[in-house]
């Protein structure tokens, strides 16, 4: 069985580091992306992904919704968790089907709980 591998997209370095470290401590392989462009490159490689966790607001250019749509085009059943402190109202209209939204600030455990509800299981 493959180890779980999450693409984690967060432009805030401190949030990204603390959340990524927490998930790694739970035995999950985390691919960090600090921008939409970097995330899109990872998605386009068409490598193995277990889930996508993405901030929505990522600065100028593409946002987390764009990343999720592209990821779902390549991985139709990919579990997706969105996080944001400002974009909750947009999730219903712009989020991909079956995704979960977590409001910032959050505890990293909330992400793992959300993924577990989306049929994601840790190796």
Structure in words:
This protein has 123 residues and is of the alpha/beta class. It has a single domain (5-117), classed as Response regulator (Rossmann fold). It contains five helices and five strands, in the order βαβαβαβαβα. The chain has helices spanning 13-25, 36-44, 64-74, 88-94, 108-117, and strands spanning 5-9, 29-33, 51-55, 80-84, 100-103. A five-stranded parallel beta sheet has the order 2-1-3-4-5, with helices on both faces. Helix 2 packs parallel to helix 3 (64-74).
**Low-confidence parts lasting 5 or more residues at pLDDT below 50?**
none
Assembly type of the shown chains? single chain
Q: What is the H/E order?
A: EHEHEHEHEH
Radius of gyration: 13 Å
Continuous helix count: 5
Largest sheet: 5 strands, parallel
Q: According to CATH, what is the class?
A: Alpha Beta
**Termini separation (Å)?**
7 Å
Named at the architecture level, the CATH assignment is 3-Layer(aba) Sandwich
* Total domains: 1
Would you tell me the overall average pLDDT? 93
In total, how many beta strands? 5
CATH topology: Rossmann fold
Structural class: alpha/beta
Strand fraction = 15-25%
Task: Describe the strand arrangement of the main beta sheet, using strand numbers.
Answer: 2-1-3-4-5
CATH superfamily, called what? Response regulator
């Amino acid at each position: 069985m493959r180890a779980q591998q999450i693409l984690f997209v967060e432009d805030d370095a401190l949030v990204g580091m603390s959340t990524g470290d927490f998930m790694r401590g739970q035995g999950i392989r985390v691919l960090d992306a600090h921008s939409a462009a970097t995330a899109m490159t990872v998605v386009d490689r068409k490598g193995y992904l277990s889930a996508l966790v993405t901030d929505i607001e990522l600065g100028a250019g593409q946002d987390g919704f764009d990343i999720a749509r592209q990821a779902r085009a390549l991985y139709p059943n990919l579990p997706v968790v969105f996080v944001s402190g400002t974009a909750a109202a947009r999730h219903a209209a712009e989020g991909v089907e079956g995704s979960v939204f977590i409001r910032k600030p959050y505890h990293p455990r909330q992400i793992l709980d959300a993924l577990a509800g989306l049929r994601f299981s840790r190796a």
